[in-house]
Structure formats: structure tokens, C-alpha cells
Write a structure and sequence with these properties.
Blueprint lengths: L6 H10 L2 H10 L2 H8 L4 H8 L4 H8 L4 H10 L2 H10 L2 H9 L3 H9 L3 H11 L6 H4 L5 E3 L5 H11 L8 E5 L5 E6 H6 L6 H4 L7 E2 L4 H11 L3 E5 L5 E6 H19 L16 H18 L1 H9 L1 H6 L2 H29 L8 H30 L11 H32 L4 H29 L2
Parallel strand pairs: 1-2, 4-5
Antiparallel strand pairs: 2-3, 5-6
Helix pairs in contact: 3-5, 4-6, 5-7, 8-10, 15-16, 16-23, 18-23, 20-22, 20-23, 21-22, 22-23
Length: 459
């Protein structure tokens, strides 16, 4: 029965107790599809379906359920059933699950897990969250350099079911130090009697266990690796990070950077919008919104200080939003590309003046085009506007054009400087860039706008 059921059909099968049909569906469909389908059911119904399956299939589907459903199921089922599922889950997935439990709940579960798996979980728990060690798995293949190719293939065939990936086998010495690797392709194409040490690749790309997880994920992405070995400070192999985990890490980091750019505080997780409560959304947004609203008073102070200028030429008020918006857009563009380049390690604080020089040139080009366009806009749209004696529309248009051009250049400078300064001070560039950028660009933009008008128009 190769078919994709709908939620009502699955509920109908449960109501009819047509367990053979449900079991067949769960065994023939991809675990991800089954998990997605089960996610729409109530917790008792999900468990009812899972109990129909073998323990390895049950664990495979369980590990693909949404995190909140996993936690609800963990509360619903017995400790023994949960321990069986966790024992069959991939090493990194079961550690992620247990990390979300409070310690008083975690320890009873661990005590019900077999000794070998329990010790492996505790070892992985020893690595700080957010590091390569915290996301690695211990399910990898190792070989010795003095083994023959035929012995290596036999060993891989014997252990394959318990390993997350067998496409790479890692060569270790007697102290478990990583000295090379071979691919499955290397083994298949080599002479069965050849020694591993004669065919292994000695130049191994690896990452330290205490390195940031994003560095590991970017390394996998850069070198198109299926898996990346993780070593300790002595070069001892302690685990691997697979490409699917790298995708999850990059997604998580991108979510974090995006939310920080938009001044959203709190934990940055790739959870669905609808699955996050209204109160949690409020708490994550309110701090920066209130702080920025308070800082926005500076903009009001600048306008107030130039009140006489506005009273003399009300036409200037018509073009204030254009200057402010253009500056904000320019600054945001600059900050975005700089933060991205910092995240990818393409640039660093040491490149400050090179980046600043480049952004000034870009700002001058953009500012020149926008200044010309704004001058034409003023002449075309404001030709019927009242102009007080002693002033001309052309001079007013020139003042606005100069202000806009200068605002674009200054916004590019601010947009590049803030994230670079944050990186220099070891702060998160994404957090600093966007929230501070809006206020700084608004204040500097108004100062540039009114100062240009004052001097060019002689106010």
C-alpha cells in the first residue's frame, strides 16, 4: 500500500482499528512523511501508531517529530518505553532530546538506558552547547593502518547497521589519534590484499571539539564533505559531524542572525511561527522596541532644534521622509552584506579601513544618482508649491539633493562601521547592527538634512 494518507483517513483507520493498514503505511513511507502525518494527531494517537512498529522504526520516526511533540510524548509514555526509543536514536539526536529535559527528569531516564549508551550520552553531554563536540555523533567507522582492504570491508559490513555513515572510514593509531581516512569508493576499487596505510589519505580535514558548531558546518559546506571528523586537543578522534547536521546548524545560525538583525531577543531557534506562543513573541520583541522608541526621542530633539528652519520653509518637511528612508535602506543594505561577510569569515575587524573605503566609494556612486533624481523630483513635483521671497525652487532642490547624497554616504559608513566595531569588541555584529543602525542613521540624517539646508539656503 504505497500511498500518502490524509489526517482524516489515518484517524478513520485508527477508529476502525485497522492496524495492519496503518503499520504498512508507516513501514513503506519515508519516516519523515510518517512523522509529518503523525504530528497532526493527538499524543495518545501518535503513541498508539508507534507501538505498532519495530523499535528501530519507532525510534527513526520519533527522532523526526517536532521537538514539542517529542517532549509531550516523553511525558506521556513510560520511562522504560522512552529509554528503549532513546537507545535506538542516533547519538546526536538523543543527546539533543535529553538536553531539553531538566536534570531531575533526565537522570531517571538515563538510569534506564543500557550502560554503553548511557556512558556515550554522558560523554557527549560534557561538551559545551554550541560547539562541534555538542553536535557530533559517536557512530562512525574506524580502521587500523595495518588492516587489509578485505578485512576493512568485512569490518564495515559487520558494523554498518550501528553507524550513522559508512562512506568514510577513519584511520586511527593505537592512541586513537586520527592519522588518515579512506572512502568506501577507495576500498571497493583497491586490491583486497592491499594495506589500509598504503591507500589512505593522510591529509585529513578535521575540526576541534571545542570549535564553534558554525565553523564545523561551514567547513563541511566549503569542502563538500559527507562527514567531518572531530578531534580533541591531542588529535584523538572523538566523533564526526554529518552533512545533514551541518544543514540543521546553518539553518539555525541563519535564523539566529536574521532575528538578531531585526532586534529580536531571547533564544533563537528554528521553531515555527505558529508554535511560538504570543507571550514568548512579546517577550522577545518588547525590550529592543521600547529601547529604540526611547532613543527615537533624539530624532525629535533634532527636528525641534531646527523648528525655525521648518517654519520658514515648510517645503523641507515634505522631503524629510524621503531622506530618512533612503538613508535607512542604504545603511541596512551595507550592514547586511558586512554582517554576512563577517559570519562567513571573509572579513574581520582588521579590514576596517579597506571596507570603509569601499563602502564610501559605493555610497558616492549611489548618492550621486539619487541626488540627481531627487533634484529633478523637487523641480517636477513642487513647481506649484509656495516659495517664500528670497528663495528659489532650484536652490531648495539643490539643498535637498546635497543632503540626500551626503546621507547615503554617511549611512553606508555607519552601516559598515557598527558591525565591524561590534566584532572588534567581541560582541555579536548582528545584534548591534540593525537596532543601533536605525537610530544613528535617523539622527545623522536629520542633522545632515537641516545643516545642508541652513548653509545652502542661508537660513
Amino acid at each position: 500500500m504505497k500511498s500518502t494518507l490524509l489526517k482524516p483517513e489515518l484517524e478513520e483507520l485508527l477508529a476502525k482499528k485497522d492496524y495492519p493498514a496503518i503499520k504498512e503505511f508507516c513501514e513503506e513511507e519515508h519516516p519523515e512523511i510518517v512523522a509529518e502525518m503523525l504530528g497532526s494527531l493527538e499524543i495518545p494517537q501518535i503513541w498508539q501508531v508507534l507501538t505498532l512498529l519495530s523499535i528501530d522504526r519507532r525510534a527513526n520516526i520519533f527522532s523526526r517529530l517536532d521537538e514539542d511533540i517529542q517532549e509531550e510524548l516523553a511525558d506521556f509514555i513510560s520511562r522504560k518505553d522512552l529509554a528503549l526509543i532513546i537507545s535506538e536514536m542516533p547519538a546526536d539526536d538523543r543527546v539533543d532530546l535529553l538536553r531539553r529535559f531538566p536534570e531531575e527528569k533526565r537522570e531517571p531516564i538515563l538510569s534506564a538506558i543500557a550502560h554503553a549508551e548511557r556512558e556515550d550520552i554522558r560523554r557527549l553531554f560534557g561538551y559545551k552547547e554550541g560547539t562541534a563536540g555538542a553536535v557530533m555523533t559517536s557512530e562512525y567507522v574506524t580502521l587500523k593502518p595495518n588492516q587489509t582492504v578485505s578485512e576493512a570491508i568485512a569490518a564495515i559490513r559487520r558494523d554498518a547497521l550501528n553507524k550513522e555513515t559508512v562512506y568514510y572510514a577513519y584511520i586511527i593509531d593505537d592512541q586513537r589519534r586520527l592519522i588518515g581516512f579512506v572512502s568506501l569508493r577507495d576500498l571497493i576499487l583497491s586490491d583486497p590484499n592491499a594495506l589500509i596505510q598504503d591507500i589512505m589519505h593522510e591529509e585529513v580535514i578535521s575540526v576541534k571539539a571545542d570549535e564553534d558548531q558554525e565553523v564545523a558546518a561551514r567547513t563541511i559546506q566549503k569542502y563538500d564533505l559527507i562527514a567531518l571528523p572531530v578531534v580533541d586537543e591531542h588529535g584523538v578522534l572523538v566523533g564526526i559531524i554529518t552533512h545533514d547536521d551541518a544543514v540543521d546548524i546553518i539553518t539555525q545560525e541563519q535564523t539566529e542572525d536574521m532575528e538578531k538583525l531585526m532586534a529580536i531577543a531571547g533564544a533563537h531557534e528554528a521553531a515555527g511561527y505558529m508554535k511560538t506562543s504570543t507571550w514568548k513573541h512579546f517577550k522577545r520583541r518588547v525590550v529592543w522596541i521600547v529601547a529604540l522608541a526611547a532613543l527615537g526621542l533624539f530624532s525629535g530633539s533634532v527636528v525641534h532644534s531646527f523648528e525655525d528652519t521648518l517654519m520658514k520653509l515648510m517645503i523641507l518637511a515634505l522631503y524629510m521622509p524621503m531622506v530618512a528612508d533612503t538613508g535607512g535602506n542604504t545603511g541596512s543594505q551595507t550592514a547586511t552584506v558586512v554582517v554576512r561577510a563577517l559570519a562567513l569569515r571573509e572579513i574581520g575587524p582588521k579590514d576596517f579601513f579597506r571596507i570603509l573605503f569601499k563602502e564610501i566609494r559605493i555610497g558616492l556612486l549611489l548618492g550621486t544618482i539619487l541626488a540627481v533624481l531627487s533634484f529633478g523630483k523637487v523641480l517636477f513635483l513642487s513647481q506649484d508649491t509656495y516659495i517664500p521671497p528670497g528663495f528659489s525652487l532650484e536652490r531648495i532642490g539643490l539643498a535637498i539633493a546635497v543632503a540626500l547624497g551626503l546621507q547615503v554616504v554617511s549611512s553606508a559608513i555607519v552601516g559598515a562601521s557598527l558591525p565591524l566595531l561590534a566584532a572588534f569588541l567581541k560582541a555579536d555584529p548582528a545584534v548591534v547592527a540593525s537596532p543601533a543602525l536605525t537610530t544613528v542613521v535617523d539622527v545623522t540624517g536629520l542633522l545632515i538634512y537641516f545643516t545642508s539646508a541652513k548653509y545652502i539656503l542661508g537660513l
